[in-house]
Amino acid sequence: EKLNTFLDANPWMNKERMFVDDYTFDAYKAAGFTRFDQVDKEQVKNFKFSNPGLDFAGWMKYFNTVGKVSPIPKDMKFGDFPEGVLWTGGTFVVQG
């Protein structure tokens, strides 16, 4: 369901080449991602966010899609913080 929503928002991506990690986040771990609460605070001091250059329509599309594709388990209780949003990874694409 989340994959189909992602692909609807990114039709240029080939579904047959997609891999979706489960809620163990093993692919994130293998790629070297960590969680926000596990990052050395000294390393983040010089981190700079950059604007992705979206126009108004792009931001609207983003906000309309992000909640639908976020790694939030269906059985999560209200007030719990989903582990998936703690990871410093995200959607990543490997070309080749």
Q: Using only CA atoms, what is the Rg?
A: 15 Å
Structural class assignment: mainly alpha
Kindly report the average pLDDT value.
81
Number of helices: 4
**Cα end-to-end separation:** 26 Å
Tell me the quaternary state: single chain
Beta-strand share of residues: under 5%
Question: What's the helical proportion of residues?
Answer: 25-40%
How many strands in all? 0
Low-pLDDT parts are none
Element-by-element helix/strand order:
HHHH
> Main sheet?
none
The best one-word shape is: globular
What's the layout of helices and strands?
Blueprint: H1 2-9, H2 26-30, H3 41-44, H4 56-69
Helix pairs in contact: 1-4
Q: Your description of this structure?
A:
By secondary structure, this protein is mainly α. 32% of the residues lie in helices and 0% in strands. It has four helices and no strands. It has helices spanning 2-9, 26-30, 41-44, 56-69. Helix 1 (2-9) packs antiparallel against helix 4.
